[in-house]
Write a structure and sequence with these properties.
Elements: H1 12-26, H2 43-59, H3 68-82, H4 91-97, H5 104-109, H6 114-137, E1 149-151, H7 163-194, H8 203-206, H9 209-225, H10 229-241, E2 249-251, H11 253-264, E3 272-277, E4 280-286, H12 291-295, E5 303-309, E6 316-317, H13 323-330, E7 337-343, E8 350-356, E9 368-374, E10 382-388, H14 396-400, H15 409-423, E11 427-431, H16 440-447, E12 454-461, E13 466-471, E14 482-486, H17 493-503, E15 508-511, E16 520-526, H18 527-532, E17 542-551, E18 567-568, H19 605-621, H20 623-640, E19 643-645, H21 648-672, H22 683-707
Parallel strand pairs: 10-11, 11-14, 14-15, 15-18
Antiparallel strand pairs: 1-19, 2-17, 3-4, 4-5, 5-6, 5-7, 7-8, 9-10, 12-13, 12-17, 16-17
Helix pairs in contact: 1-2, 2-10, 3-10, 6-7, 6-9, 15-16, 16-17, 19-22
Length: 708
């Protein structure tokens, strides 16, 4: 996307150079300091803040200047980043900080970071007070027969208004943590007994849970006190940048170095995209072909609560650990082992996963295909070509060298389509359910395998200019019936292809209610390089900024709403909080003028109504889909729970209920998602085949009627 970025606005550069000169002269005297030494912002930090503010105002796609509304958002996000469950600050603290709510914008533009230091120093004070309270409480006995509860939904939590209320919140928090620890120990014993093995308590099982809990609280306290000026700047400025949208973030120099290491692939990991949510590390996506995908148990929406190195290293609690530090714990050389303590996002079950780190090989993420035969209630057998495409990939280095055999998703899919023609298939299913995106060029070119020239996507930049990008190759690789299979994990480039196929009337989209809904483009702006235009510029961190937005040929944005399926199948993933709309302050959906393009006649109203009706009738009679709908209802109830009982009998009864559902949920998710098999027959995939067959037959009837 670098070729699409606009030049540096002429108004910004003098301001940046001025701030940069100030940094250069101040930098030799500055080094990151620990929290105990955080007396005042450094001159370097102040000038970095000015640069970030200027770039945000000029380069963000919204073209919105920092204002009072964004200022209030920034304060809200900063407090959430420090205290997501409202366990530390008093309501009086938050009321006191409110005086900054409408001034952060002006302060940051002027390089004034006082608010970050005022809030953070108060936060450290409250941590020390709360840990002292927790230590005293842990010396007392707890009554687990009392019928009381704890709030588990951050939105339902309230800041305590007094020391007594804060102490009661922590008493309940400790009870909850002790019940979870007891449940996990009992679960390990139960699993050993079920497998016929002798249960041998680990050192962790034998340790006093109260002592272990206190160590966790003190470790978290120590971690926050070791926060340096760079980390505080990153926390605060990211609160400012994410007030624009959740993908616009500030990286400290250390975070930028880590990002560069990751891009060079000098270190490997588990193959999962992670995000921070309310102080927890959450799996947002498992990357096809990666170590976690091959291991098979880690799922999107799972919480990672601890990390251990090797087969017997200590499990380090990572709750409330900064995401960069979590990534450092998980990342390592290929072939080494990492253990993850996981809390299921669906059932709440906790377990330890052992994963061998590995590099994601291109072959593992490449297109795979299979010819599948299906029987219908009427008519002969039908051959259907199935293609699983985990990403829109391109070996850019080989392509730049004009290597004849360079790999790309378009080339691979074209080869599969040509093979299908020799097999005499009647339709193609393109499976994008786990495709989180990739190369925009590949999305355009691959769409061109199914349409004969024309615009595929429109891109609006921060100047408001809209540019269409088209498939310019004449001819198609496949002109027959096409089914695009999507889920809530289908994002970005996947949404461009699926949306273009819909807009052209070229095929039908089947799957979750809608795709992920990410319709924006980000670029990484190295602050040093941005100002000096030199690869030798000092490292002052970076700004990842949203500077463009996608629109489909008909003018609709994919942002937030995604691409809606023509034929909806019941699915757990539809109800997971993993979409763009689930993120705070995601940019709103909008539209631009439609472009002129051809309309194919392959998804008329009569065709869609026939296919929808037939599918709905089958689902209604399917025991497997009825079970899935029941499980979805249960999952939604679990998600809506705001409180958990701390009465031991009720607590364990609820955990037992969740445990009884975990295997069923795992099987249902496996049914909805592609796996190591190219095409696996199960109730979900077989319904996709039935839909495809109905679609082919409905098209034949439509064409016959038109011919007559």
């Amino acid at each position: 996307m670098a070729s699409m970025t606009s030049p540096q606005p002429r108004f910004v550069r003098p301001l940046l150079l001025s701030a940069f000169c100030a940094i250069i002269f101040a930098a030799p005297q500055i080094s990151p300091c620990a929290a105990e030494d955080l007396v005042a912002p450094t001159k370097t930090d102040q000038n970095v803040a000015k640069i970030v503010a200027a770039l945000l105002e000029r380069r963000h796609v919204s073209r919105t200047g920092l204002n009072d509304e964004l200022s209030a958002r920034a304060m809200e996000l900063f407090l959430k980043s420090l205290d997501p469950m409202k366990l530390y600050f008093y309501q009086s603290d938050v009321d006191e900080f409110a005086r900054y709510n409408l001034t952060i914008d002006d302060m940051v533009k002027g390089g004034n970071l006082d608010v970050a230091y005022v809030v953070f120093k108060r936060f450290l004070q409250r941590i020390d007070e709360r840990v002292a309270v927790a230590e005293a409480l842990l010396n007392e006995d707890f009554d687990f027969t009392t019928d009381e509860s704890i709030v588990v939904d951050p939105d339902a939590a309230r800041y305590p208004t007094s020391p007594e209320e804060a102490k009661d919140r922590w008493r309940r928090q400790i009870k909850f943590n002790l019940l979870v620890a007891k449940d996990e120990a009992l679960e390990r014993k139960r699993k050993a007994e079920e497998s016929g093995e002798e249960y041998k308590p680990t050192q962790e099982d034998l340790e006093d849970p109260k002592a272990k809990l206190l160590r966790r609280y003190k470790r978290n306290q120590k971690r926050w006190h070791e926060t340096d000026s760079d980390q505080l700047l990153e926390l605060f400025l990211t609160s400012v940048t994410t007030s624009y949208d959740p993908h616009t973030t500030f990286m400290s120099p250390k975070s930028l170095d880590n990002f560069r290491i990751m891009m060079r692939l000098n270190l490997e990991g588990i193959g999962a995209a992670l995000r921070e949510k309310d102080g927890h590390t959450v799996v947002s996506r498992v990357i096809p072909g990666g170590a976690a995908h091959k291991q098979g148990e880690l799922k999107a929406d799972d919480y990672i609560v601890s990390v251990g190195q090797g087969t017997d290293g200590e499990m380090v609690d990572i709750v409330e650990m900064p995401l960069d530090d979590v990534v450092e714990q998980i990342r390592g050389h290929a072939g080494t082992i990492v253990r993850l303590g996981i809390k299921s996002g669906g059932t709440g079950e906790t377990k330890i996963l052992t994963i061998t780190r590995a590099k994601v090989e291109l072959e593992d993420s490449a297109a795979r295909s299979q010819v599948v035969e299906t029987d219908g209630e009427t008519g002969p057998k039908m051959k259907i070509g199935y293609i699983s495409l985990p990403s829109f990939y391109l070996d850019m280095e080989a392509a730049r060298r004009n290597a004849r055999d360079y790999r790309s998703s378009t080339k691979d899919v074209r080869d599969r389509l040509n093979e299908f023609k020799d097999d005499g298939i009647a339709a193609v299913i393109l499976d994008l359910r786990m495709n989180g995106g990739g190369s925009l060029t590949e999305a355009i070119n691959l769409t061109g395998l199914f349409i004969d020239q024309g615009p595929v996507v429109q891109v609006k930049d921060s100047d408001g200019q809209v540019t269409p990008y088209a498939d310019e190759d004449s001819g198609v690789a496949w002109d027959g019936p096409l089914v695009v299979l999507t889920s809530k994990f289908s994002a970005s480039a996947s949404e461009i292809l699926a949306g273009a196929i819909q807009d052209y009337g070229r095929g039908i989209v089947v799957g979750d209610v809608a795709t992920h809904g990410k319709g924006t483009v980000q670029t990484l702006m190295d602050l040093g390089q941005e100002i000096l235009r030199s690869n030798r510029a000092p490292n002052f961190g970076a700004l990842k900024v949203t500077l463009q937005q996608f629109y489909l040929p008909d003018g609709e944005s994919t942002q937030k709403e995604g691409v809606k399926a023509d034929i909806i199948l019941p699915s757990l993933t539809t109800h997971m909080d993993v979409g763009e709309a689930d993120l705070e302050y995601a940019l709103e959906h909008d539209r631009v003028e439609k472009t002129k393009h051809r309309k194919y006649n392959m998804m008329g109203a009569d065709v869609l109504n026939t296919v929808r009706t037939n599918s709905a009738n089958r689902i209604e009679k399917s025991d497997e889909f009825v079970d899935l709908l029941r499980r979805i209802e249960s999952y939604q109830r679990q998600k809506s729970e705001k409180f958990v009982s701390l009465q031991e009998d009720k607590f364990f009864a609820r955990r037992k209920e969740l445990d009884s559902q975990k295997e069923e949920e795992k099987q249902l998710l496996e049914a909805e998602m592609p796996d190591d098999e190219v095409f696996r027959h199960n109730f979900y995939n077989d319904e996709v085949l039935n839909i495809t067959r109905d679609y082919v037959e409905a098209l034949k009837r439509q064409n016959l009627a038109r011919a007559n």
